[in-house]
Amino acid sequence: MAPHAAQAQTGGEAATHDFNIPARTLSEALADFGRQSGMQVNVDADEIRDRASPGVSGRMSSDQALNRLLAGTGLTWRLNNGFVTLQPAPQTAQASGDTRSTVNLGSLRVEGQQSGGNGGFGRDGSVGTGGAAGGADEIFAAPRAVSVVTREEMDRTPARHAADLIAEVPGVTSAVNRLNPGLSVNIRGMQDFGRVNMMIDGMRQNFVQNGHQGRNGQMYVDPELLTAVAIERGPRSNVYGMGAIAGSVDFKTIGPEDILNGESDRIGARLRATTGLGGEGNGVNFLGSAAIAGRLTDNIELMAAYSRRDIGDYDVGTKGDDGLANFTFTGADGLETISRIKYASQLQESALIKARWTLGDGHVVQLSYVGTWLDYEHVSDTRTGLLDENGSPWKRLGTSSITSENFAFDYNWKPDSNWINLRLTRLIHQKCPEGLAGVA
């Protein structure tokens, strides 16, 4: 039992006794206390040797009598299964003259406020991960197969490709070509054709690429503008799980609460930038973003953010079990091992705008815009034959350009009630075309 355990009184007065213990050695005083109170005292003989007690006299509780007996002795006591145990008192207790290690408190009431996250735009019946108010602790709110990737975890292992965001989530992967910035989430072996509902702030992303070996179900997202990723494995009965037999993934973007430091702040900004150092950059030319948020009134918040990602060709790892047998192809000199991945250059620019209006009584309205623009090398699938003239198992087909835009209107009503949490999302406009030009 740890010392200084706190006990809350549940009502009723402690039993009192008549004590008559004169000043004497502590060992004799404790013996008298045991006889007069009916309690057994456990003590190390070395601890009470050469110690004296001032004694106690009068009708009082056993707690009060024991405190007076031990006053000035440098010892404290605790009650454990009906036995009184003595031990050296902490310095703070000695200074205050209080020798008790058990503190009696009045009736306590502990209250908390559930975090809705993202200004009340946490997913109804799901994991509320949006904004600084959300958090991974909410995965324990219900017995479901739920995982949350927080901003802290994203920064711990910066993502070169959006697939890196979910690389450490159990049962979740992304079976895409890393030369293509598109993301197709695989949950428990299932993906594409609507099996996984992929979203940005609750807005479904179902881009389809037609043609030979085209994909049915991929999306484009910028890791710089995210605050969390909420993943639910398995079918769900709510609106986000409709038709998605494998599960859902919601990429939550940053909000004003991620930029402003508390309710007292009126304006705030965030700058982030990363770049490689010469030849050691390994294709990382620039990764960065800028965001600014303001609170015009107590009820109106605005936020705008811009991000840019510029990456190029990179070298594969050379340490440990790298599995380079998968990168061995037939070249001019026979079998050649690929150590540099070519045609990996990508330029991505993204923008995010949010306007939030808190109406009171739990009503919140938000307008949001998320856009991203991509240019990257369009290549063939991996070939098993000869390498091309640049020593790559991929053949360059041209340049692809992607534009992904989402406009949404959100309404959330969450009054001071555990029975009501209404959220409506209207996807005003969505655009995601792809172009292929300059076939080599």
TrEMBL record:
Residues 114-134 have a biased composition (Gly residues). Residues 1-20, 110-134 are annotated as: Disordered. Coiled coil: none annotated. It is found in: Cell outer membrane. GO terms for biological process: siderophore transmembrane transport. SMART domains: STN. Its main location: membrane. GO terms for molecular function: siderophore uptake transmembrane transporter activity. SUPFAM superfamilies: Porins. InterPro entries: Beta-barrel_TonB_sf, Plug_dom, Plug_dom_sf, Secretin/TonB_short_N, TonB-dep_rcpt-like. GO terms for cellular component: cell outer membrane. Keywords: Cell outer membrane, Membrane, Receptor, Transmembrane, Transmembrane beta strand, Transport. This is TonB-dependent receptor. It is a multi-pass membrane protein. Residues 1-14 have a biased composition (Low complexity). Residues 39-89 form the Secretin/TonB short N-terminal domain. Belongs to the TonB-dependent receptor family.
